[in-house]
């Protein structure tokens, strides 16, 4: 560490090397948790979104119910049910499931993944349905079957339309992850709460953590702008 | 002659002053209900550990005491505004409060207690045996500070906002043991089947003291002397035994 930072840390009651490490560990946990749940959520959401557009109600119905339940209830409640509820099932402690549910990380990961997958499913479904009819008819005229149409025409075009809405979902997920601290996970918010209660200094502890969230959000916004520029470059005026 | 009169009047004033001190009127404030420290019994009579201790203390001080009920928010302002003279309402001694009021020596302290399931048979002071155990505490309490300072890196410390969440995780076997304010543990854990105290309780913090106005230094001396006497002559122990089955004496 540069000298001036070490010096500043030494003069300061709250931001010692120890608490900075606690924030750093919290940052790693938050990024880890959010990144994993978003990736798994996206992988799950694409097939669900396609099946959700199928006409057969026995296929699309259950997926509708799933997205309705997970978008219709607060994430905090879902986390409470998965974390505390599962532990109350009689005999669960003797099964191999307990290895997974014992640690707070996996229940939180499960709740976050199910939640973000529900929102992402609806985002992708919306953009699949808004594919211009002309594109689909042209693909049919070329003799493409359903699978080929989906892969070559509908999904790439839907992805372009979904990316803006999805970038919001990613940022919401980052901020929603703050509730992980209620199930004893020491994420960024958990670190801030520990430091606040140790020094009774709410402004220092929480403003610092707010700045860290802002920095993370800035990185996400920047990355998505690059991605949008890349995916939507055909929409830019030719002269620019 | 003048000198003699002056000396006589001085002596008289001292006798009068002494007599006045022996019949002083004191008002003691409590915030009820806070069982078992101060609460009203079925007949509406004020009772509890601190109420009985205050009664004994007043006898020792040879003072006529009046008990006042005051909500917690207005405790220190009420004392400073002379609505009453003493607070004996489980007020923990903290540096922040000590800037505004004068505390007596502490007269009780609730310990932190170790609680766990019947199957837990590890010595909580044996750091090798405790390695890797999951220990629950309430965030920001003196118990949290104690575990953080003495056992960080040995046990895995889980911090909870409420005691209810912590007890749920103890029931769900996510925690091996919890370290919590003894009265809280007694009410929420010990009264369930299959749970017990798993270690020696530890007294933490500075304890609870009688709060007085800063200018009443003389009263504070008398209060300290009276409390000391009660602790020594067995009166304190007798009152404590009526309300607690564990030690809160300091």
Write the layout of secondary structure elements.
The complex is a heterodimer of chains A (240) and B (250).
Chain A: H1 3-10, H2 17-52, H3 57-72, H4 75-87, H5 97-102, H6 105-129, H7 133-141, H8 146-176, H9 188-199, H10 202-231
Helix pairs in contact in A: 2-3, 2-6, 2-9, 3-6, 4-6, 6-8, 8-10, 9-10
Chain B: H1 2-22, E1 25-30, E2 39-40, E3 46-47, H2 49-61, E4 64-69, H3 75-80, E5 86-87, H4 95-98, E6 102-103, E7 112-117, H5 127-130, E8 134-138, H6 142-151, E9 156-160, H7 163-171, E10 177-181, H8 182-190, E11 195-202, E12 211-212, H9 217-232, H10 235-243
Helix pairs in contact in B: 2-9, 2-10
Overview of this structure, please?
The complex is a heterodimer of chains A (240) and B (250). Chain A is an all-alpha fold. Chain A is built from 10 helices and no strands. In chain A, helix 4 (75-87) packs across helix 6 (105-129) and helix 8 (146-176) packs antiparallel against helix 10. Chain B has 2 domains: 24-109 and 206-243, D-Maltodextrin-Binding Protein, domain 2; 112-202, Periplasmic binding protein-like II (D-Maltodextrin-Binding Protein, domain 2, 3-Layer(aba) Sandwich), CATH 3.40.190.10. Chain B is built from 10 helices and 12 strands. In chain B, strands 9-8-10-7-11 form a 5-stranded mixed beta sheet, with helices on both faces. In chain B, strands 4-1-5 form a 3-stranded parallel beta sheet. In chain B, strands 2-3 form a two-stranded antiparallel sheet. Chains A and B meet through helix 9 of A and helix 6, strand 9 and helix 7 of B.
Descriptive terms for the model:
heterodimer, A: 240 residues, mainly alpha, MetI-like fold, 10 helices, 0% strand, B: 250 residues, alpha/beta, D-Maltodextrin-Binding Protein, domain 2, 2 domains, 20% strand, elongated
